[in-house]
Amino acid sequence: MNDGPAQGDTPARHDALMGAWRVRRTVIDFLAGTRFVFSGQAVVTADAFEETGDIQIGERTLPASRSYRLDRRTDAVAVLRADGSAFISLDGRASQSVRHDCGADLYLGRLLFRGPDEWAEAWRVKGPRKNYASLGRFLRPPAPRCQARNAEVYWRSVSDRKAATPGMAAAPSKRPGPSSANRLPGLNGRWNHPFGGCARPAFPRPCG
Length: 208
Prior knowledge:
single chain; mainly beta; Lipocalin; 2 domains; disordered N terminus
C-alpha cells in the first residue's frame, strides 16, 4: 500500500533499480533487546529481488538471505512474497511511504531514492509478535577492475591493428586514462557482477 497518488515514471524507476547493490542495514529489536547489523549484497532483476549476506549479533555471525517476486504493472511495481501474496507496491516517486498489515503486526516504511547509485529505506514494525525498527542503505558497487583491463586490451588491439595496416595512422603513444573507458565501444555503462561481491537488497523480515 502507498500513500498519496502515484507519480513519476514507474518503469524508469524499476529499470534504474535493476542490477547489483551493496547493502548495510541496522535493526533494533525491542522485543529481544538486541541490535544487529546486516551486511551483504542484493540483485534486482525484471521480476525478482534477491539478497544474501551475514547478520552480526554481538560476537555471532549468521548467514541471512531473502527474496521477493516483482510484478511490473501499469502504474506500480508489486512486491510479492515467495508464495505470491502481496507485500507492498512501489511507484515512480523519489520518496514514498508504504504500509503492510501482517495480521495484527503493522509495517510502516519509508523509501528514499537519492539517485541512480543510492537508495535508503526505514521501517517501523510493531505488533504483538514483532517490535523493531530498521534503517538500510544501498549503494552501487564500484566498477570492477576488469573494466580497466578490458579498456587496456581494447587500446592494445587498436594499436596492433593500425601498426599492421598500411595507410592507417599510428595509434597514440599515450593511451587514454581510465575515464575514457566509458567512451569505448562495448564498455559503456556500469559493470555489475551480480554474484561477484555486489548485489541488491532490502525489505524487512518476511511477514509471518
